[in-house]
Structure formats: structure tokens, C-alpha cells
Amino acid sequence: MRVVVDLNRCQGYAQCAFLAPRVFELHGEEALLYTPAVPNDQRERVLQAVAACPVQAITAGEQAGAGEL
Amino acid sequence: MSFDLKDGRIVIVGASLAGLRAAETLREKGFTGSLTLVGEEPELPYDRPPLSKAVLLGRAGAEDCGLPGRRSLDAHWRLGVRATGLDPEARRLLLADGEQLPYDRLLIATGTRARPWPNPEEAALDGVLTLRTSQDAARLARLLDARPHRVLVVGAGFTGSEIASACRERGLDVTVVERGRAPLIGALGGTVGAWAIRLQRAHGVDLRCGVTVTALLGRNGRLSGAELSDGSRIDAEVAVVCLGAVRNTEWLADSGLAAGPRGVACDAGCRVFTMYGIVTDDVFVAGDVARFPHPLFEYQLIALEHWGNAIAQAEVAAHNMVSPGPRRRPHLAVPSFWSSQFGLNIKSVGVPTFSDQVILAQGSPGERRLVAVYGYRGRITAAVTVDRAKWLEHYRHLIETAAPFPPGPGAADHLAGQEPVPSDVPDPRVLSHGPTVALTGHLPDWRLTLLRPAG
Amino acid sequence: MSTDTLFRRITDYANRPDPYPLYAELREHGVARQEDGAFLVGTYDEITALLHDPRVSSDVRNRDDAEELLAGEDPAAPRSFIALDDPEHDRLRRLAMRRFGPPHTPGRIDALRQDITAIAEDLARGLGEKQHIDIVDDFAFPLPVAVICRLLGVPGEDVPQVHEWADAVVAGLDFSPEEEPAERRRTALQARQAMGVYLGELARTRRERPTGDLLSQLANEDGPDGRLTDGELMSTATLLLIAGHETTVNLITNGVLTLGRHPEALQRLCDDPELMPRAVEELLRFEPPVQFLPQRTPLADIEVAGVTVPKGAPLILVLASGNRDPLRFPEPDRFRPDREDNQHLGFGSGVHSCFGAPLARLETQIALTVLLRRLGSWRLLADPPEYRRSPVLRGPRHLPVERGGGVS
């Protein structure tokens, strides 16, 4: 699974960093760093973060184009 | 309509963020015809912002930045092959491998590439590189892993500043050489630039402004250092050339389209103009390579090297490619971007370079939290926040409604005694880094086009 | 009816079970000036804009009627960050966040998953084979109280006393006119002060002998922003304890109530527990535990949807109404546990957005998951149930359900 965060939308509420701290991390007080390739054991937490994002900025899914080459 | 817009052959040139999101939008809007994505890089679409941040900090591998798909595309992928030309009359796209791809509608999303170091011999030295692709990022991450004694960053725009930040965070010595007076000045102006000088120095960056690199020095084919225009010399094992971007338009030179170094010109609906200024109806453009008129900025053609613009414009272009005239939409999104560096979140809405004045409206710059608001001839045209993103929406609304500048009083954490000062937007010709917004129109008192490589 | 009595009608206890038609009436008018000079806002876009407007204060000392409002309070007493503006709000909130979440303590809430699950399972087991259950007393209340007290380090034997104070403080947020408001405010103030003194003493002992809980850490924290003063520590700990006490109970209870009313959604959740995080977000939209923010005040004249709200006027943002705005949410009055693009206002938005949101989310997800699994089939015994008095922190006082006979 891959994630991408629309950091234009992101306002640093950090709900993702609470719910899936191994994938999303605050870098300083507001900037978000994340691991685009989600480890398998973090899938469920990432989906919780997707649901909880107050500005709905997180997209999770399989690699675009995978299986179409 | 004599033919079905939801059917036929659509070819997208460029398989990065804009190309991908356009393809997804086409399918979402019900396009059932054949869809082909052509990409010069061999990788499936990936995200570039992490390449200068998470990847350099070792938090993510360069090869792990693939973009998630929003849906299946049922597309033909032609990756690892460059587009070399276009025959708009025969509606054929020419590829580097000799193949010709016929299309009914075409989307140009070829983006930009890093401006190379102008001296090819010096550029070929081991340890000299640019940062644009995932392969670049993998190489730079490997070089940083080897803990060089000093990294040289040429150009202090956003990419250069983010690289410098990553180096400092990893405890590496870094020298940043910027031809302009301050970092970020090309995008944010001199007032915020002066703040960025203090920020970089506080984090131990050896920042040299008003200076250029006159030569990269090598020993046995490896970079050993650089000579600067002030006569000084530095030793460095890695040099990252961050001189801004070049738009990938050369392949359109003989196409008869309005394509050149400033980008591919289009109307508000992303339809490309011919070189005579006549709008086409089967060639569209989106992303970094597009230059389009924006009503908030006096209909000047602007070109934005912004992640968010690539998506928003791709979605509008795709919508218009499958919609009849009256259903088409303009691309009006207020430009916005972000950068994270030195542990701070810098965000912008509007176009800060489209300004004559700026005021520090909120925050505490000493504590590195602030809101700067930009105005042009008495109206608000942009705002920049540092670790204050939650207020940005308010200023976006003020920009959209052309609210008067300076903003009215009343902000709870307003800065006492602040007056508007000149925003001090420099002529981009004196910058090392290109601005990430190029105002490419022709207002008489503006000379904000990026015309020649600096360095 | 005239819209200038809307707030009176919203706060009228008779309308507690279903304030939503009143909210619809409010949205029709965009901004409604009340007979007492307060302004009600109930449309999504306007609420969002005001929550992100730096000219809107959370500090009631900026109100024209502040003197009357704060009668009896010590003006020098430290206020909690919920009632302060930046930069003070920001500094205090950051200090409290240092040991609660990212960036300095990112894993703390995530690490509570097992604890919360264990508490929820314990409570659910305690239900045994009981035929009649009060969701509030038997489950939804004890769970968040146990979690917040454990997190803060409040000893178990003090929980009943703490609960009494918290109830009194929340009663102070009852705006209904039929009772004597000054009296209620006085009682609430005394309770808040007593709670502060209690927590202050507890913190002092933890400063000597830290025990690893949040209170010990807040008492001993030495970050770049310095340490909380004793007064700040008291007001911050009081805020966390009350908020952690009085809101999640409503979210969990409203969840059970809503699922009891929507058997098809209940069935979907039983079949597909992975839907729970999204269902909880929909619950936060559909029946938010904080219905409105009563304490905002403009610091300048602000135009809202064509109406000028003057500086110093009470400004009330009805989050629960914004959550039902048809201009923002398709089919807003339908509970759809898989709703897309659910950017609700259940936790507010902007700099004052709910501090404890991640904890409330996790508790509710776990509580409802455990409860649904343990309950088997059940049905609501009273609909509408008896509500608590507060129109702000709105939720049932009791929610009796009966096992058997319903959906499972």
C-alpha cells in the first residue's frame, strides 16, 4: 500500500501521527513527514488515519498503474 | 456533437503526478476509449516532494515514493520512452523509439527537469548532481550516507534550502551559495528572505548570499571543491545544483503550438494555443509545463511549479477533454504550496511575487511562527505562514475576494507596531534559483520572466 | 417563530432529544441575531471561516458583557487554553501536548489501545447475562473515566469525587433560562476551583515522586517553553479531566443510540468491523458530542454571510448544525457509516480543534466494537431516551437497552 498526503490541505492536526505513528510523524510542531510505502502491519492503522484526517488529505491505495504494465 | 467525447483515443504525454491524476479523472468522468500514458522515466508515477525531505533524511527509500492510484485506469503505459515530436495535423505523437502514436485528443504534461550546471565537464564530476527524479534522490541519499565532509548546495530556492536542512539534520556541514540576497527570495521576496537568512544560519548552514560559484573543481574526476565569485574557495565532496527548472517543451519546437522556454500557453480551460494565439480544441496541457491566465493575477499567464496545481489543473483539463463546450470549467484554483525545512512548515497561498508590499500580520517571528500577508496595489494577493497553517484558509478567502491590503485589525496574536514594507521581489535574473512561480505576462513594470540560466 | 428566540429554543430542555429542526431553521437564516444581542451561526462554510479567522477570540474577557459574565471569578486566576487566544493558548497547548502526542510523545495514545480494549472488555464482561442494560452507567461512562484518570494519574478512590465536580462544571454550561443561571455558574465555578485545588495538590506530590502518568510529567516538564506554573498546571489538568470525562461518554452513547435507530448500519458494522473508524467519523458528524461553541467573540466587526457581527458580541457557532448543512453534505440527515469526504466539525476546526480528539476516536472505536460483539442482539428500550441537561455537551443521561429481539 502507498500513501500520499496533500500537504496543501494538511493543517497539522496530527491525527494521523497519533493513530499511525510509525507511518506519519510530525517534524517540528507542524510539518508532516510520512513513509509513502506502508508496511503491511500498518495497513489498518493507516486506514484509520485516512478516516480520521480532519481535512481529508490522505490518499491510500495500491501503486498507481501496478498490474497494468 | 458529431462524435462521442467519452470514446476515442486519448494520449497523455507525461506519466507523473499531473498525467496520472488526469488519467484517473478521465475514467471517473466516464471516458471509455483507449488511454495511453507516455513517460520518459522508467518508473510508475511517484511523488517528488518526499525526494528532498523524507528520502534525504533516511525516512523513506527513493524507490518507495510511488503514488497510490485512486482507481484502476485500464491504460496502456509507455514508460521509459521520450516524446520527440508532435504532428498536430495528422494527430500523431512521435516517440524516441520511432513509434508514432495516433490520438484524437492529447494532454501535454511533460513537466520540468532540473536546470543543469552550465559547464558540462564540471557537471560530469563525480559528486555533482541535480535533484529532480527518484534516481537523483537515490544517488544523493547514497552520497549523504557516506558522510561527506562538506556538501555544497548551489542555489537557495526551496529545493536547495530543503537539501541544506536535511544535511544539517544529519549533522553534515553544508555551504549554500546563492546569487541573490537571501534564500527563498525568488518565491517569497526579500523581507521573508531576510528571515530565512537568520533561520539557516541559526541551524549552522554556511550561507553565502550575493555570491556565485564560478567553477566546480575536480581531482581525478571527483569533485573536490568550488571557487566562488568573491575569490574564496571551499572544499566539498558533494555539490547539488539547485538552479531551478527547465520546462520540457523542446519536443514541441516544430509543432506550431505556443510552446517555448516559458512553457506551453493555454486558455483558462487548459486548451493549448497555437503559435498564432489561436486556441486548439484537441490539445490540452496541465502541470508545471503549462502557462495559463489567472484572473486573480490580472489574467497574466502564470506557470506554477506546484504539486497542488498539477493535480487541480490535470482534473480541469481531463474534465474539459470529455465535456462539450458549455460544460467546460476554468482552472481558477488559488495557487498554493508548502515546504518543510529546519523543522518548520512553510505554506503559501496566492502568488507572493505578485506583490509590492508585505506585512507581518500574526505570530512571533522570534519564535519562528508567523503569518506574512502580501499586497499588490492595495489588495491582498498572497499569504505565507510558518507553523501557522491553520490560519491560512482565512487569507485564502481574502485573496479570492480581493480584500484590501493591509488586512484589517483584530487578529488575536497580531504583531504590534507592524507596518507594510516593500515585499522586495527581485528580478529573477539575479537569482541562482528560479522562482517557482513565473509570471510570464507583460505588465510594463514587471520583468519577472526567467530567461536565461544563472549561476 | 421569530429567529431571535432560536437560541432560547435550542437550549430549552424540551428540545434536547431533537434539536435538528431548529438547526435547519437556523441555516435558513444563515446568521441569526438573538434577543440578547448574541449571534448564532449554523452554516458549514461560515462556521469554518470563523473557526479559521484570527479575529475571533475564545476569551470571553473580550466580550462587551465580560464583567457581568465573570462576576465572582478572580481575574488573575489562570485560564485554561480552551478559553485563551494565541499566543498564550498556543504556548499552553504545546506544553500540554509535549507528553500527550506528537511531535514529542507520538506513540502515547497508540500505546493505549491495549489498555482501552482491556477496560472495555472488563466492562462488557461485567454486563454478564443481564437482560436490561443502561449503556451510560454500565459502559459508556465508566470507560472514558477510567481511561482519562489512568492517563492523568488520578487514584481510583478519588474518581467519584472527581465525577461530582465534573458534573457541576458541565451543568454550568446549561443555558436554559428556567433555572437561576447565576447560581448554577457559582456552583460550577466552585467545582472547577475545587477540582483545580485537588489536582494541584496531586501534582505537587507527583513533583516530588513522579509516577509516569501525564500529571507527573506535566509537573516536571522542562521544555523550551519552560514549565507550567502551578496555576497553569491546575487549569490545564482540570480542562483535560473534565473534557476527557464529559464528551466521550456522549459520543459512545450517541453511537449506541444511533445504531439502535439504524439496524441496517448496525448490521453492516457487525459484518464488517473494519468500517468502524469511518462509522465513528460519521457519528461525529451526525450526533456530535459538542453541539455548539458558545464562547466566541469577534475582536473586530466581522461580516458573516452579509451580517455584521459587532466587536465584543457573543458569537455562537453551532457545529452540529454545520454538520447537517446540505450545501456541504449530501443527504445530511442520513446516517451513512461509509460516507465519503466527511470533513465534519465534530471536533471543531482551527487552532482550538479538540485536544483529546485522537483519544476520543480510539475509545469510541474500541468501545463500540467490543460492545457490539458482546451484546448479541439488542434493542432500545426508550426512544428518545432521557437526556442530560446540557445543550452543549448533549447526550442521554441513561440509555436502557434490552438484549434479544433486535438485530445482532
Q: What topology does this entry show?
A:
The complex is a heterotrimer of chains A (69), B (455) and C (408).
Chain A: E1 2-5, H1 15-19, E2 24-27, E3 31-34, H2 43-52, E4 58-61
Antiparallel strand pairs in A: 1-4, 2-3
Chain B: E1 9-13, H1 17-28, E2 34-39, E3 76-79, E4 83-87, E5 92-95, E6 100-102, E7 105-108, E8 112-114, H2 120-123, E9 128-130, H3 134-145, E10 151-154, H4 158-169, E11 174-178, H5 185-202, E12 206-209, E13 213-219, E14 222-228, E15 233-235, E16 238-241, E17 245-247, E18 259-260, E19 263-265, E20 271-273, E21 279-285, E22 290-294, E23 300-304, H6 307-321, E24 336-341, E25 344-350, E26 357-364, E27 369-376, E28 379-386, H7 392-400, E29 421-422, E30 437-439
Parallel strand pairs in B: 1-2, 1-7, 2-3, 7-21, 9-16, 10-11, 10-16, 11-12, 19-22
Antiparallel strand pairs in B: 4-5, 5-6, 8-17, 13-14, 14-15, 18-19, 20-21, 22-23, 23-30, 24-25, 25-28, 26-27, 26-29, 27-28
Helix pairs in contact in B: 1-6
Chain C: H1 6-11, H2 20-29, E1 31-33, E2 39-41, H3 44-51, E3 56-57, H4 66-69, H5 88-97, H6 113-126, E4 132-134, H7 135-140, H8 142-152, H9 159-171, H10 181-208, H11 214-220, H12 230-246, H13 248-261, H14 263-271, H15 276-286, E5 293-298, E6 302-304, E7 307-309, E8 315-317, H16 319-322, H17 357-375, E9 378-380, E10 400-403
Parallel strand pairs in C: 2-8
Antiparallel strand pairs in C: 1-2, 3-5, 4-10, 5-8, 6-7, 9-10
Helix pairs in contact in C: 6-8, 6-17, 8-12, 9-10, 9-12, 10-11, 10-12, 13-17, 15-17
Domain Reductase C-terminal (chain B): 337-407
GO molecular function (chain B): oxidoreductase activity
Protein name (chain B): FAD/NAD(P)-binding oxidoreductase
